[in-house]
Amino acid sequence: MQSLALALAVPVAIGVAYRVGYRAARAREVVNTERAPAAIGPYSQGVKAGGLLFVSGQIPIDPATGEFSGSTIEAQAAQVMRNLRSIVEASGCSMQDVVKCTILLADIADFATVNEVYKSNFSPPYPARAAFAVKALPKGALVEIECVAALP
Using CA atoms, how far apart are residues 118 and 139, in angstroms rounded to an integer? Predict the structure, then answer.
């Protein structure tokens, strides 16, 4: 009789744990900070979900002025990294928690320059990364970067 009770109880317990875990994994928390530009569309600066932080693509808008921080690729890449850092830190993470970045470039010729700015914001082990040239970026930006971080 105990065997039958155990045989019936285990799948039920696993099912309950799965549903609770599934709901927890689906739970989301929005991350928002005034130290980064406000979203310019229907999206959040960042979202915590499933033990990860997903940071929306950042362009070089200075949150204090609402304008681009400069016209050169160096200035724009530096502002993008400041914006990413602000959102990452507002979530309780650090740049060392970043595990993946995606870089979008208006001109692939800017890859090496952006790479130097990017490198100065991380230390080994560096996050996984992809970089692409795209036809155009929002507001005519030269660079946009998004990232994913592991929550501590």
Answer: 21
Residue 32 neighbours by CB under 8 Å, 6+ apart:
44, 45, 46, 90
Token reading at 81:
């990294």
User: Topology of 28-150 in CATH?
Assistant: 60s Ribosomal Protein L30; Chain: A; (3.30.1330)
Angle between helices 73-90 and 111-119 (to 10 degrees): 40
Q: Using one digit for the tens of pLDDT, what is the confidence trace for 26-78?
A: 799 999 999 999 988 999 999 999 999 999 999 999 999 999 999 999 999 99
Q: What's phi and psi for 22, nearest 5 deg?
A: -65, -45
CA neighbours within 13 Å on the CB side: how many for 24? Answer: 7
Q: Which two tokens stand for residue 65?
A: 């002025």
Look up the pTM and report it. 0.83
| CA dist., res. 35 & res. 23, Å (int) | 31
